[in-house]
Amino acid sequence: MATFAAASAKPMAVIDNSQLSLCQKKFDGLRVGYAFAKRKSSSSLKVKSVSRINMALATDVSRFEGVTMAPPDPILGVSEAFKADTNDLKLNLGVGAYRTEDLQPYVLNVVKKAENMMLEKGENKEYLPIEGLAAFNKATVELLLGADNDATKQGRVATVQGLSGTGSLRLAAAFIQRYFPGVQVLISSPTWGNHKNIFNDAGVPWSEYRYYDPKTVGLDFEGMIADIKAAPSGSFVLLHGCAHNPTGIDPTPEQWEKIADVIQEKDLTAFFDVAYQGFASGSLDEDASSVRLFVARGMEVFVAQSYSKNLGLYAERIGAINVVCSSSDAAIRVKSQLKRLARPMYSNPPVHGAQIVANVVGNPTLFDEWKSEMELMSGRIKGVRQRLYDNLSAKDKTGKDWSFVLRQIGMFSFTGLNKAQSENMSNKWHIYMTKDGRISLAGLSLSKCEYLADAIVDSYYNVS
Amino acid sequence: MEGQADRDGDLRFQPTAGSAVSAFQHLEQAPEDPILGVTVAYNKDPSPVKLNLGVGAYRTEEGKPLVLDVVRQAEELLIQDRSRYKEYIPIAGLVEFNKLSAKLILGDGSPAIGEKRVATAQCLSGTGSLRVGAEFLSKHYSQHIIYIPVPTWGNHPKIFNLGGLSVKTYRYYDPRTSGLDYEGMLEDLHAAPPGAIVLLHACAHNPTGVDPTQDQWEGIRQLIRLKGLLPFFDSAYQGFASGSLDADAYSVRLFVGDGGECLIAQSFAKNMGLYGERVGALSIVCRSATVATRVESQLKLVIRPMYSSPPIHGASIVATILSDRNLYYNWTVELKNMADRIISMRHQLYDALKARGTPGDWSHIIKQIGMFTFTGLNKDQVSFMTAEYHIYLTSDGRISMAGLSSKTVPHLADAIHAAVLRLG
After folding, report:
1. Separation of CA A152 from chain center
2. What confidence tier does A59 reach under pLDDT thresholds 50, 70, 90?
3. CB-based contact (8 Å) between A36 and chain B?
4. Is the pTM of this model over 0.95?
5. Pick from B76, B86, B288: which is nearest to A119 by CB?
6. Cα angle B379, B380, B382; round to 5
7. Model ipTM?
8. What is the DSSP letter of A11?
9. Does the distance separating the beta carbons of A314 and B88 come in below 8 Å?
10. Pick from B76, B142, B294: which is nearest to A68 by CB?
11. The domain B88-323: what is its CATH number?
12. Which of A23, A132, A433, B253 gives a 20 to 30 Å CA spacing to A169?
């Protein structure tokens, strides 16, 4: 950064009674005049500008000269590379945004209807309370825990509307940093790339627990349990509620029970990231079963929710952070402290997406229609998984078992391809995916499955 | 968390028991936000004559929130556009919105824009822009001290602290004159270490409504440039303060015009009435285009772990209005109407107090600019007004003129009159 003449200036001249006082300073030979005018002075102020006033500016070097170019986001950067590719066969399997069979973005019908309703109603655009839209908060916790949930009825859930999954995770991370300083969050290996960034920026230490087993392309359950058991008491354990990102590999119900056992035994706190409720299996209840299991045991849990995928509201940034506490008193206190963290971050959350969710969930017809649309979306993905599996099995003459494609759940599939193989996918086949071998099935159509299968088989066997 | 063993000796927890020891035992209840809490208290009051002069949200003469006509029209256009979808927008926001926002504050022919020296990111209104700017500076700038005026918006120190900066103050408001303590301001900024960041309210200072004159701005600019301080403008009322978008951007353009660097946080909450949509932008004016490009890339690294990318709706509305000549023109008309109504409230309140012979010099009511008036009333007088007259304002004596109407001015004047007589 530019350095400035370290002038040890004399104290300023005392302002006397004259209407215009001039205070002069010497800075390394530069004489600059300041004019102070008493407020009552009606005569125009004289500013003694110096011919070398431009020299008085900072030097021509930017104070940000040392700022380096940041690398492109590894996930969002994939879309950018895809856009730059002019090849007709190109395929974007990078970001997890749902596309139709025609590979077009999809705005849900219920969302369009809700927006029309909102426009007709002529809602105002006043600030929401810091904790967000009340109707949304009520709806979101009911969706998550079920309408008749005891925790809700007992007032034990602190809910604050957040900026989709990321924003909700960040609020929770800021809360953990402030009220549990030094306490770690355990995250799965691998996990969504942005998790680490969120905890880093929030100043929360993290460590990893084993999760993905490349040998089976499945869950390393023993490793997971061992690593969670070894965590310091009081640690947080970040769990994907369903449709693990990036692997698509979820624990079975029995495995969830064991995970809950360990977390209880070791006095840890579960922290769920629920980004795909309803989108994974097609059923809202089924996809929330892991969270509900923990809550039913009376455990205190954090749950971050997102409506980006299940309601297709990606760009509206709508989600929530829920903290299920052991008492309603604790929930009140927790909520008040979450608000205190949200206020200096963005004051209060955006209203539009929250209104959409509240309108859809609050209207029985729209709510049913939403459930159908979710079944459609998750159904299309399951169909694509099946086709891909069929194609892979047909094209791979070695008899390798590709059935993990069918077992994995949600938008993503961990193909088992390594970095070089993933790069081959892009360079040779114009198929864009993240370097960890993750493909987004939401960006795949039935008609492209065969091409994709060819590419995977080629990359897997011919590139190391 | 210990569980009660059931009959089978299973450690599984009884569903309704709740944990024996909560992880949140040590948490205290946070108080309500001092500004937003005023509305919370107001809402609880059953009195039919209650008046909310707390939050700076514009109200019509009928006391109703206002959605601008151009905003409704823009929303209609957006909803009818079948090519629109809701996929993630870029981390730094809508490109078109960013260009138009920078143009709005810097002016059409700004060389900074022409020379591509401005890095702009769409953020969550003013707060979000300030926070992203603070985090960027704490990561990439060598000076971590920011000077804020006394008084300033209550949320400023918290934003900067949590954003990783430490906060110092400079004198600003002179209660003796109900005006600017210009000498004190310059003295304090002069004493700042080189490179320190300085928060400046672009116009319509919140909460005082006291702005530097153009000449005073020039003096401030000279000092800041001489000391190599880094200005960080908070522009929340462009067009709303005087009714003129250009006039309200004077201070920012003065600084940018000398070729130096600065940060600018813009909000569209008030001037477009988009409060709840959370639309704003952070612009960093740099010395060169290459620096601006690098700065923008680093802004994305701040934003991604905070909320990934900003919300589309409000920014789309703004971009639609700013890019359409008719909508833009109509906006300026609606903006002027809002500003004029507030100025008229100032005069009505002043006249009402004069008519009642309320002791004191109330001329600051008509001299101050923008949405707020720093009445000069103290905490006790404020409490009195709330308790006896059901008037809700922040305890520093700040009232939102936007919340007044011709019908309610007499009630407020009565309350102030009584408070001054009773506790003066």
Report:
1. 25
2. low
3. yes
4. no
5. B76
6. 65
7. 0.92
8. P
9. yes
10. B294
11. 3.40.640.10
12. A433
